[in-house]
Design goal:
Layout lengths: L3 H8 L3 H6 L22 E3 L2 E3 L3 E3 L15 H12 L4 E8 L18 H19 L4 E7 L14 E2 L14 E2 L2 H21 L3 E4 L6 H5 L13 H4 L1 H13 L5 E9 L10 E2 L2 E5 L2 H12 L4 E6 L6 H4 L13 H18 L5 E2 L10 H10 L6 E3 L1 H5 L3 H6 L14 H7 L11 H12 L1
Parallel strand pairs: 3-4, 3-14, 4-5, 5-8, 6-7, 8-9, 9-12, 12-13
Antiparallel strand pairs: 1-2, 10-11
Length: about 450
């Protein structure tokens, strides 16, 4: 086992931090191994077998049509990803309701477009099997965008509570009533049944990054059955798990992408150390995970922060691009160590971590090191999927190329934030041109 202290700090883009900022960079231990075979090990999840330890995380391409149907570009993206050979492909956020869409080109599944989602599942499985000799486990993420709903391209927030720290007087909002929240578990279950019938291996109830279910976890001041106490703040997620678990087959994976640390500099922040908001306190997240496991959780995907509030927490990026508010090394260490803490606390729950794309060309060595040191079950690549969709295939065949990696420029996030087709602006000419046209305005 090798430490990044010598190799990583001196060779990666994060050396820029040492040269160009006033940050004090501690010599934090980062996992490191050159034994890529560690990532080729199979792992069982609820009766299904993941062929390797690499997960392609959900990344929205914003290329559905206005009805939520996947377009030909959507199909091509997932065909490309499936060729890439990851053991798990986590389909991007799919809205459960028209008013819950994050943008007017977000995917949205219903009875009328079910055949297209069947085709999406079929293409993904067939492409991977034909080119890699195995089918990926495919998880489809269901979401309500809540505070970040923009169904027609303009903000129409549906909020869990009035939060003066996130309030924008430019936009009116709808406060989700208890009656409205009461209706959501059945809607999630209905969509889960559709996903199952379309051929997906599992369903993710998205509870991260400040979307509705995630926001409720910190709704300390909300009145009624969904706010205040820990039991109330977690009630909607648990109720949704119960009805989904009872609506789908037992071998269909029920998962959750969960914020274990919001990292907001406000009183409304789940998983924060109240004495030091730069640090996490996993007491409540662990209580929640224990409850989820007892209510049917099969697979856990942990993350932190919000792309809308503190993107440097969830996807640390290159200095000088978006002027990160926090030291990228510290942020990455927090992501990895937080996931490892959860993994060690719940060894029976298969776990996917996140953030490794922030290590750019060194990500594969860190990924292997994470498996070697038992920090996670699966290493999750997000932005890297846009930049280097063949990364899993290349790692597993010893053809890994550092020069093809994501450079953590945050360009794909800029496209998403502005409602544009989203992809890598460095490695993909299509998205490079989209970004150039956007930058001219």
């Amino acid at each position: 086992m090798q430490n990044f202290d010598n190799d990583y700090y001196n060779s990666s883009i994060y050396a820029d931090i040492l040269k160009n900022t006033n940050f004090i960079v501690p010599k934090l231990h980062m996992p490191y191994s050159k034994d890529f075979s560690l990532l080729s090990k199979e792992k069982k999840i609820s009766g299904k077998i993941a062929a390797n330890r690499i997960c392609y995380q959900p990344m929205e391409g914003q290329d559905a049509d206005e009805n939520g149907d996947p377009s030909e570009l959507t199909f091509q993206r997932y065909k490309t990803l499936s060729y890439g050979g990851a053991g798990i492909i986590w389909i991007e956020a799919v809205s459960i309701l028209p008013e819950a869409r994050s943008n007017k080109h977000q995917l949205m599944i219903n009875e009328h477009n079910l055949d297209k989602y069947k085709r999406l599942a079929e293409i993904s499985k067939e492409t991977c099997f034909k080119n890699n000799g195995y089918e990926p486990i495919i998880i489809l993420q269901l979401n309500h965008s809540g505070r970040y709903s923009k169904p027609d391209g303009k903000p129409h927030p549906i909020i869990a509570m009035e939060n003066k720290y996130f309030y924008n007087p430019e936009f009116s909002y709808t406060l989700a009533t208890d009656d409205y929240l009461n209706s959501l578990p059945q809607i999630f279950a209905d969509k889960a049944i559709l996903c199952e019938s379309a051929g997906f291996d599992g369903i993710d109830i998205k509870c991260c990054h400040g979307y509705l279910y995630s926001e409720l976890l910190s709704a300390y001041d909300r009145k009624g059955k969904y706010g205040g106490s820990f039991e109330n703040r977690t009630r909607l997620l648990i109720d949704t798990f119960d009805i989904c678990r009872n609506s789908i087959k037992r071998d269909t994976i029920l998962s959750c992408r969960l914020n274990i640390y919001d990292g907001y500099n406000t009183p409304y922040s789940f998983g924060n150390d109240k004495n030091n908001l730069e640090k996490y306190d996993l007491s409540e997240p662990k209580l929640l995970i224990e409850k989820l496991y007892s209510h049917g959780l099969d697979l856990l995907n942990v993350t932190m922060g919000s792309p809308y509030v503190n993107p440097d927490v969830s996807r640390p990026y290159r200095p000088g691009i978006d002027k990160p508010k926090t030291n990228a090394i510290n942020a990455l260490y927090r992501l990895f160590s937080g996931a490892a803490d959860i993994h060690h606390a719940f060894p029976k729950i298969p776990l996917v971590n996140t953030g490794v794309s922030g290590l750019c060309g060194k990500c594969a060595y860190a990924a292997a090191g994470m498996i070697e040191e038992d920090m996670t079950d699966f290493v999750g690549f997000g932005r890297m999927n846009f930049a280097y969709p063949n990364i899993a295939r290349d790692i597993l065949s010893n053809n890994y190329n550092e020069k093809k990696c994501c450079v953590a420029c945050s360009g794909c996030s800029t496209l998403k934030k502005n409602g544009l087709l989203s992809g890598c602006i460095i490695r993909n000419e299509k998205y490079k041109e989209i970004y150039k046209e956007f930058a001219k305005k």
